[in-house]
Amino acid sequence: MNGKHRAVQALTPGAEVITLQRLPYFTGISGETVGAEGLSMHLVVIPPGARAAPHVHIGYETGIYVLEGKVLTRWGERLENEVVSNAGEFLFVPPGVPHEAVNLSATEVARAVVARNDPAEQDRVEPYECPPRDA
Question: Do 70 and 86 touch, CB atoms closer than 8 A?
Answer without folding.
Answer: yes
